[in-house]
Write a structure and sequence with these properties.
The protein has helices at about 70-75, 90-95, 115-140, 145-160, 165-170, 180-195, 200-215, 225, 235-240, 245-255, 260-265, 290-300, 315-325, 330-340, 410-425; strands spanning about 35, 45-50, 65, 80-85, 350, 355-365, 365-375, 390, 400-405. The protein is an alpha+beta fold and about 425 residues long. It folds into 3 domains: about 35-100, no CATH class; about 115-340, Hypothetical protein af1432; about 350-425, no CATH class. The strands form 2 sheets. Strands 8-7-6-5-9 form a 5-stranded antiparallel sheet, sandwiched between helices. The chain has a 4-stranded antiparallel sheet with strand order 1-4-2-3, with no helix packed on it.
Length: about 425
């Protein structure tokens, strides 16, 4: 949780695996413009889609629209795409100017997208805003909260309406550097848990922003320390613990912030028994948002593989939190967190009692141990004889165990087909 590798840029690779493809749009620069597929024109450079590339017939990652057939193909599989004006044959002003001269209208927030596409777009936009903020922090440690706040409005709205699709996308489609994945995951988790607690919308917005920025102070920690696989020395440990106050300093310098935001950032490494840092606050002196941030930060951290610690399946991470109730974490908050996420959280892999494998697609209200599971393959790792379907356990023991992605011998083709089908089933 305290050490990790972080890239220097936001790598939002949606399903892409070809690392040798130099045209891969692995980074979402701020200038990408979302455009309704009905308004695509020849000469535009399509840099990204509204869905993973592997779920489409296109074999490249980014291409110039040179034929009408390409536009028709995009319209069949996508609602919107991201256009890069810098690589298009027309200038940005020619295509995306404002007023009467505008030739193409960019996508607006009220565009009628499916729930799945709205969630994808919210994650894209939050990723853009996060990337901008991290770059600012690395350059001068002076950041603006305007872009993150704006992007998180859509993300929080999506989670209030549907608390399953964004966690599903985080688990099945989003491939980013450690720092970015942790930030996006924490923002989603803070919102889901806060909504379950019953916080009003203004507080949820602050919790989401806190989750996104919990570790912003780590941009000031040398990468050699963050990525070190061995035990840290005393001075190195000091660099790590200082990231909390450094991050809070940057956020405070940006604007006047709420108590909720300040307490969450300052207290996300504090523990109920006083064993945390930087202040060693214990018990009821630890504010509620700090207690929640500590639970979220710990849970999301143990889901990620690190050089010195393997990742845990989400179900095992839930069990770990449960074992820390009343010692390091508030018992009532842990219980609420588990009810919000489920015993088998959305996006996690499970093996059924009959050997079949599946991925949790959604939770069942008030039944945290009975999620809806998208079946992926049979007990041998082979394709199912029926179309992908959502299955729900009937009794205790129907789910044999939690597993990690890649732990079982299943072909990527079978996994990709099941993930696509499951996403659309619940969309």
């Amino acid at each position: 949780m305290d050490r990790h590798s972080s890239g220097s840029c936001l790598l939002l690779k949606w399903g892409g695996r070809n690392k040798n493809n130099k045209n891969m749009a692995g980074v979402f620069p701020a200038q990408l413009i979302p455009v309704d597929c009905r308004q695509l024109q020849l000469g535009m450079y399509v840099a990204e889609l509204d869905r993973p590339w592997l779920q489409t017939p296109f074999h490249t990652h980014g291409f110039l629209l040179g034929h009408a057939e390409q536009i028709e193909a995009l319209r069949r599989v996508c609602s919107y795409v991201y256009v890069d004006p810098a690589l298009s044959e027309h200038s940005e002003n020619e295509l995306f100017g404002t007023g009467l001269t505008a030739r193409v209208g960019t996508l607006t927030p009220d565009h009628r997208l499916s729930g799945l596409d709205r969630s994808r777009r919210a994650l894209h936009e939050t990723g853009h805003a996060l990337d901008m903020t991290v770059r600012e922090a690395r350059r001068s440690e002076q950041i603006s909260l305007k872009a993150p706040r704006l992007a998180l409005e859509a993300l929080v709205s999506n989670l209030i309406e549907d608390s399953d699709t964004l966690p599903w996308l985080l688990a099945t489609e989003l491939h980013v550097g450690f720092l970015y994945r942790r930030a996006l995951g924490s923002a989603v988790l803070m919102t889901i848990a806060g909504h379950r607690i019953g916080f009003e919308r203004t507080v949820l917005d602050e919790l989401a922003l806190a989750g996104l920025l919990l570790d912003i102070g780590k941009v000031s920690v040398p990468i050699t320390i963050l990525a070190k696989p061995a035990r840290l020395t005393g001075p190195e440990r000091g660099f790590i613990t200082r990231h909390v106050r450094r991050g809070l300093y940057m956020v405070r310098a940006a604007e006047v912030i709420s108590e909720t935001l300040e307490e969450a950032i300052l207290g996300h490494h504090e523990r109920l028994d006083g064993s945390g840092y930087p202040r060693g606050v214990r018990g009821t002196r630890l504010p509620l948002s700090a207690r929640l941030a500590g639970i979220v930060d710990t849970y999301d951290a143990v889901l990620q593989h690190k050089g010195y610690s393997p990742a845990l399946p989400a179900h095992d991470a839930i069990r770990l939190l449960n074992s820390m109730r009343n010692t390091q974490f508030d018992s009532a908050l842990v219980k609420t967190f588990i009810l919000a996420l489920g015993v088998y959280p959305t996006g996690s892999w499970v093996q059924l009692a009959d050997g079949r494998l599946g991925i949790v697609r959604s939770q069942t209200a008030d039944e945290p141990a009975r999620p809806h599971i998208a079946l992926v393959c049979d007990s041998t790792g082979g394709a199912l004889k029926t179309d992908t379907m959502l299955w729900k356990p009937a009794r205790r023991g129907d789910i044999a165990r939690a597993v990690l992605p890649g732990q079982m011998p299943v072909s990527q083709r079978i996994v990709d087909a099941a993930v696509l089908a499951a996403a659309n089933l619940a969309a």
